[in-house]
Design a protein that fits this description.
Layout: H1 3-6, E1 8-11, E2 15-18, E3 22-23, H2 40-52, E4 57-59, H3 68-77, E5 85-90, E6 92-96, E7 99-102, H4 106-119, E8 125-130, H5 139-151, E9 155-161, H6 165-172, E10 179-181, H7 192-201, E11 204-205, H8 224-234, H9 247-254
Length: 260
């Protein structure tokens, strides 16, 4: 396998993405990733710099802000280049910095997909992920709502987040699943078996917390380039999505390929 092949993955077997992407959770207000990013223009500059560095996969979620991460991505990058892939999530909402609500009901999922289409200024979401399993709603019902949106042309690919192998298998009985996004990094390897299982099935594994950072706090635990390179080496189906608000850190992260 040549280096160029190693640097990309065919998401859903149909969309080629660079395996070093960008996670947009930090482009929101503080504390608690709540509200709009206060340095809006700087955030737009950072997103455009990511594209210049070869990033073509951007990961967001309704709960980031809420909705503000989707909006800043659209403000910075729309109209989207043909090779840009924008992923977002639903099934989780945030009503205050410390008030996170999981709701995987079909009605809520459908409404959040429509909101994401509007916020991202697009007619079809490249990858829509169920952010978290609702303990009160069977996963089949939540995925069924996303699959209905896919059949209607509102969603291209479906992903999962914060799931185990049983959840994945149950979801696969309802619809094609293109990605799994769970916490995984060099110091937290509990998801290793699922990394391998998804690789066998041609499903992308998108590790969040790739540098070991706390989701609500700034600062990485692991050496950034080394930690990202470790993930890129770990399995060819891994797409890393380090998040940062610093152009300097963004450029350092992009150089992780030099260690692979």
């Amino acid at each position: 396998m040549n280096m160029e092949t190693k640097k990309t993955f065919r998401l859903g077997g149909e969309i080629t993405v660079n395996r070093l992407g960008y996670g947009a959770m930090r482009l929101t207000g503080q504390p608690g990733n709540f509200g709009p990013y206060p340095e809006w223009d700087s955030g737009k500059t950072l997103l455009r710099r990511a594209v210049e560095l070869g990033v073509n996969f951007f990961d967001s979620a309704r709960a980031y802000g809420p909705e503000w991460a989707d909006r800043i991505i659209a403000d910075a990058l729309h109209p989207y280049a043909d090779d840009l892939v924008i992923a977002t999530k639903g099934g989780v909402d945030k009503f205050a910095p410390d008030q996170i609500v999981t709701d995987g009901s079909p009605q809520t999922i459908s409404m959040q997909i429509d909101d994401a289409l509007r916020n991202l200024k697009t007619e079809r979401i490249d990858l829509f992920q169920l952010h978290r399993i609702d303990p009160d709603i069977p996963i089949e019902e939540s995925i069924g709502a996303i699959e209905a949106a896919r059949q209607a042309g509102k969603v291209r690919l479906i992903g999962l987040s914060n799931v185990d192998r049983e959840h994945l298998d149950r979801a696969l009985d309802v619809a094609p699943i293109s990605s799994v996004q769970n916490r995984f990094n060099q110091a937290e390897t509990q998801q290793s078996a699922l990394v391998d299982y998804t690789a066998e099935k041609g499903i992308a594994f998108i590790p969040y917390g790739p540098l070991g950072a706390h989701p609500m706090k700034k600062g990485a635990v692991l050496p950034p380039q080394e930690a990202l390179a470790w993930l890129l080496r770990r399995s060819p189906n891994i797409i890393v999505i380090p998040g940062t608000t610093s152009v300097g850190h963004l450029e350092q992260n992009a150089a992780a390929w030099s260690l692979v």
